[in-house]
TrEMBL record:
Record flagged with keyword Nuclease: no
Domain named Polyphosphate kinase middle: residues: 132-315
Protein name (Swiss-Prot/TrEMBL): Polyphosphate kinase
Post-translational modification: An intermediate of this reaction is the autophosphorylated ppk in which a phosphate is covalently linked to a histidine residue through a N-P bond.
Gene: ppk
């Protein structure tokens, strides 16, 4: 075969690419589909509604905010893939989001008003309460709610308050008694206290659960805040603000202090979205609100159900007690297949690479890996990167213990991990106080790598144990995110890990690594080389095949390279959970590319890259997605898998996911996703459920 020459202009047309923001909305639509899916347990469907809301908040706080900033700055240049200007993107985002929010409302009403009552669970309006419940609510208001409320009058002496992002508020229209009509109308604002539970359970008989929303209780008692006035209307609204931090790294002497300063400003950013209750807010009050907020770029969303459905997370916890049939069957992550319960992780790692497949296999051995190192007198040093950790992280506790035990502990805490900045600032201070050497990353880059190095001296011999993974050192998310990793003692991995941490902490050029590939830049270069090699192998031997799994694909250079591979005849199979700017199935361009997205019980999070290479079967795991930010703006690690059995396990998991006909959606040539429906006679293949059963089966086989 001859090398296929592809003109650059042939693969850069806007119609060959999905817009990044619209592709993200398509992902959140798939989350919403899980809330619609009657095959999912009822309370799990409510969780997906909450996840959809939480996702949308972050989208408006960061992505929409950025587009609005571009419009305000007069920037009208189309983005370089789909060719849409910022204004065009905002218009399409608005249209799509309005439709999705309408669907979310319909699902909420079905679940809360039709299906939950069948399970003896009710959300009540005040007028629906019996005498005992009414008395309870009145007492609760007087004793608990009233002391927390602060009514704010809006007039010449008391200007409209600056309300922080994601808070629920009420705007009240009042008439003063015994005053001429043209002078009597007043406006006040009351914030719904976020320190109180969003719903209040009222006394009920038997196993019935009845709750009333906090804002309904406040609204019913609002007149008690305004004696001498008649309440004309009470209307709920919620603000979302720009949450992107402006971190001036150039002039910062201490990044931690700079971030702490910026965190204080986050809650007061420019308005990006205003949500109001449908039927509550009349046009006059809405116009007054918009005038006071002074931000005309913000989109107004009228929602015909309670605002901010993230309260459903805590609601599900309440309802779930004693109603286990309404949730997924409980699952306990199993011991890793490569590590029996009676085996020591360090001694086993000296004999073979150990593979971990979370959440099906437990994250506990990773915590024990650090904890045992902290207590082992032979361990000299522990070095680790931390991007996102849990609120009460056992990994942090182990690192602190190690420092207190006299180990040399170096921790890179990424202070710029979005929405985890405050948490990470806290942990950085605690680690420093315990004697750890804490570094914050590299100039103008985020460190997103997942790597731990343990250095041990046994009988005058230095041993290096390296953990590399695709996910964060977070014991909480490890129960719901699918991730993979290895612990290895291969000498060159140990040397690479040492050089990597020295690269992060000191003044040195990027080292020449033996096995690992490190971004910025080098991972993209390596991917391009691997794809070019696959094209050449295919043209010479045939059977060209690439399989990759990631969270998002946005990097145009890599997308173009995949188009080149497809045009050359290489088969490209992609599992991309979220954003995908590549369009598969376009005749003559991407007809050899398949894209599926799996959204289910667990959040697909592993990054896997496989290249056939004429039977060489090159396989890599990585902390990096094929996104431009991961390629040039972050410190990431791509690492090879050498062990044959581990390769087989990883490839088997990918093949199973491509056969999924329950939770997989296929993207077509127009960028639209549809379920990978099973044909008549086909058995249901839910890949995540298969992996759960396999984890249990391994345990049974061992016993």
């Amino acid at each position: 075969m001859e090398l296929v020459q592809v003109k650059h202009t042939e693969i850069t047309k806007p119609e060959y690419y999905n817009n990044r923001e619209l592709s993200w909305l398509a992902f959140n639509e798939r989350v919403l589909q899980e809330a619609e899916d009657a095959q999912n347990p009822l309370l799990e469907r409510l969780k997906f509604l909450a996840i959809f809301s939480s996702n949308l908040d972050e989208f408006f706080m960061v992505r929409v905010a950025g587009l609005q900033d571009q419009v305000k700055a007069g920037f009208h240049k189309p983005e370089n893939k789909s060719g849409l200007t910022p204004k065009e993107q905002l218009a399409r985002i608005s249209e799509k989001t309005q439709a999705l929010v309408s669907r979310q409302t319909a699902i909420y009403k079905e679940l809360m008003k039709k299906l939950l009552p069948k399970e003896n669970v009710h959300t009540r309006k005040i007028v629906e309460l019996n005498e005992e419940q009414t008395n309870f609510i009145n007492e609760y208001f007087e004793e608990t709610i009233f002391p927390v409320l602060t009514p704010v009058a809006v007039d010449a002496y008391r200007p409209f308050p600056t309300l922080i992002s994601k808070t629920l508020n009420m705007i009240i229209l009042l008439e003063q008694d015994n005053v001429e009509p043209e002078f009597c109308e007043k406006v006040a604002v009351v914030q719904v206290p976020s320190v109180l539970e969003r719903f209040i359970q009222v006394p009920s008989k038997g196993n019935e659960i009845s709750v009333v929303l906090l804002e309904d209780i406040i609204s019913a008692n609002i007149n008690k805040l305004f004696y001498g006035y008649h309440v004309k209307s009470v209307q709920s609204f919620r603000l979302t603000r720009n949450a992107d931090l402006t971190i001036h790294e150039e002039g910062a002497r201490d990044l931690l202090l700079e971030i702490e300063k910026e965190l204080k400003k986050r809650k007061w950013g420019a308005l990006t979205r205003l949500e109001v209750r449908t039927g509550e807010m009349d046009k006059g009050v809405l116009q007054f609100l918009l005038n006071e907020l002074e931000d005309w770029e913000a989109e107004v969303y009228s929602v015909d159900c309670p605002l901010d459905l993230t309260f459903l997370f805590s609601f599900v916890k309440l309802v779930g007690e004693g109603r286990e049939h309404l949730e997924y069957e409980s699952f306990i992550p199993q011991p890793p297949q490569d590590l029996r319960s009676d085996e020591n992780i360090f001694e086993k790692a000296l004999t073979q690479d150990i593979f971990f497949n979370h959440p099906y296999e437990s994250f506990t051995p990773i915590v024990e890996f650090v904890t045992e190192a902290a207590n082992d007198p032979s361990v000299l040093a522990i070095k680790q990167t931390l991007y996102r950790v849990s609120g009460n992280s056992p990994v942090i506790q182990a690192l602190k213990l190690a420092a207190e035990n006299g180990k040399q502990v170096t921790v890179l805490v990424e202070l710029k991990a979005r929405f985890d900045e405050e948490n990470n600032v806290h942990w950085a201070k605690e680690l420093e106080q315990s004697g750890c050497l804490v570094i914050y990353g590299m100039h103008n880059l985020k460190t997103h790598s997942k790597i731990t190095l343990v250095v041990r001296r046994k009988q005058s011999k230095i041993e290096r144990f390296v953990h590399l993974g695709t996910g964060n050192y977070n014991d909480a998310t490890a129960k719901i995110y699918t991730d993979m990793g290895i612990i290895t003692t291969k000498k060159k991995f140990g040397i690479d890990a040492t050089n990597f941490f020295n690269f992060l902490s000191g003044y040195t050029e990027k080292p020449n690594f033996h096995h690992i590939v490190v971004s910025p830049n080098d991972i993209r270069v390596e991917f391009i080389k691997l794809i070019d090699d696959e094209i050449n192998y295919h043209l010479k031997y045939g059977k060209g095949h690439i399989r990759a799994k990631m969270n998002s694909l946005t990097d145009k250079e890599l997308i173009m390279k995949m188009y080149e591979a497809s045009i050359a005849g290489v088969k490209v199979d992609l599992i991309i959970r979220g954003i995908c700017c590549l369009r598969p199935g376009i005749k003559g361009i991407s007809e050899n590319i398949t894209v599926i997205s799996i959204v289910g019980r667990f959040l697909e999070h592993a990054r896997i890259y496989w290249f056939h290479h004429n039977g060489e079967n090159k396989l890599y795991l990585s902390s990096a997605d094929m996104m431009t930010r991961n390629m040039i703006k972050r410190v990431e690690i791509l690492f090879p898998i050498f062990d044959t059995e581990i390769k087989k396990r990883i490839m088997k998991s990918i093949k199973t996911q491509f056969r999924d006909n329950v939770k997989a959606r296929i993207q077509d040539e127009n960028g639209v996703y549809y379920y990978n429906e099973k044909k008549d006679g086909d058995k249901c293949i839910n890949s995540q459920e298969i992996f759960l059963k396999e984890a249990y089966r391994v345990l049974i086989d061992e016993e």
